[in-house]
Each structure stands twice: as C-alpha cells, then as structure tokens.
Amino acid sequence: MSALSKIGGSKLMPYVIGITGGIASGKSTVAAYLRQLGYHVIDSDQVAHDLMNQAPLLETLSHTFGDRIVDDRGQLDRRQLASIVFSDPNSLETLNQLTHPHIFERLQAMLAEVQAELCFLEVPLLYESGRLELYDEVWLVWLDEASQLERLMKRNGYSYQEAKSRIDSQWPLEKKRQLADRVINNQNGYLEMKNQVNQALQGLINKL
C-alpha cells in the first residue's frame, strides 16, 4: 500500500517510485524509457513550469525577483530567473520556498487521480525538497561528476563555471546515492541503463 494512502482519502493510491538524480544525470532519459514501456510517469518539472506561468504564483515571483523574469508575452522567462537564483544561494532558497508548496500540492492531487497500480514521479530535487512521504521508494540515476559536468556543458552550452554552479546548487549525487533504494548507473550508455531499469522493474514486480 502506498505511503500516500496513509494521507489521503479512501481511494487506494498507487505505489509511487520517485525518480531523481542530478542535473544532466539522465533522469528524463529513464523517465522516457518507462513511458515507452507503458508506465504512468509524472514530470514534476513540467508541473512546476505550468504553475509558475499561472497567477498568483507568477505574480509572486515577479514581485520577488523583478519584472525582468516575465517576458513580453507575460510568460516566465526561465533563463532570466535561472541567472538570478543560480548566482545566489539565498535567492534559490527563496524560490524553492515560494514554489515547492504549490508544486507538491498539485503533485498530490495528480497522484490521487492515477488509476494505475504503479506510478513514477520524476523529481530533480527530491531529497532537497524533504517531501519523502510522497514516495514508497526512490530510484537514483547516477553518474560521476566529471561525466555530469561534461554532459551538462555539451547539452546546454554552458561554460565550466556555469555548469559547476548548477551542479553545486543540488545535493551531491554521492550523498543521494547513500539514501536511495535503488541506483541506476547511467555511466555506461543507454543500453546498459535500460538493462538496469528492466532488472529494477522485474524486482519490483516480484515484490508487489
């Protein structure tokens, strides 16, 4: 029985697995593969993006960080916001304090509507947010920091310092590795990652 069933209502909640990692570690690749296999996957980043483009949260963010984080179409300029919060840890903490309650309220509502027995929740800041009651178990997508830096610089066109500051804004993957229920090693390519996910799923099916 899911941890969420202890929180909400009489409806039996799905078994919830949190998918986390670090920036550019491969969380979204694992999530996409799980979707290909037909599993229900919720992307918390997309939930956050949608909420931050809606009043009153967008108005709160604009008031807090300035009008320049809103573009000419009245939408959140994520690049401008990132340039603020990733250069100042206090600003990043403020952003998380303003957004996380809204995001996790929406995630709980979405989980309550899931009809599947099993649901995956992709959450980059899973441990940082401290909302562990949402998950029955956590899978960490891991790779070493040198590979993480290289992938982030290549993917986003960041300088070394830009990539390092974004990685350093999150908990180290080694710290998360000690806490996770299962580690998906994404060091050795896509096929190896798929094999590990398949093994994890088989173990999960046997357990459930």
TrEMBL record:
Its EC number is 2.7.1.24. It is found in: Cytoplasm. It comes from the Bacteria. It catalyses: 3'-dephospho-CoA + ATP = ADP + CoA + H(+). Its main location: cytoplasm. CDD domains: DPCK (cd02022). One of its GO terms (molecular function) is ATP binding. The keyword Transmembrane does not apply. It is an enzyme of class 2 (transferase). Pfam families: CoaE. ATP binds at A24, S25, G26, K27, S28, T29. Pathway: Cofactor biosynthesis; coenzyme A biosynthesis; CoA from (R)-pantothenate: step 5/5. PROSITE patterns: DPCK. One of its GO terms (biological process) is coenzyme A biosynthetic process. Keywords: ATP-binding, Coenzyme A biosynthesis, Cytoplasm, Kinase, Nucleotide-binding, Transferase. One of its GO terms (cellular component) is cytoplasm. PANTHER family: BIFUNCTIONAL COENZYME A SYNTHASE-RELATED (PTHR10695:SF46), DEPHOSPHO-COA KINASE-RELATED (PTHR10695). Belongs to the CoaE family. Catalyzes the phosphorylation of the 3'-hydroxyl group of dephosphocoenzyme A to form coenzyme A. This is Dephospho-CoA kinase.
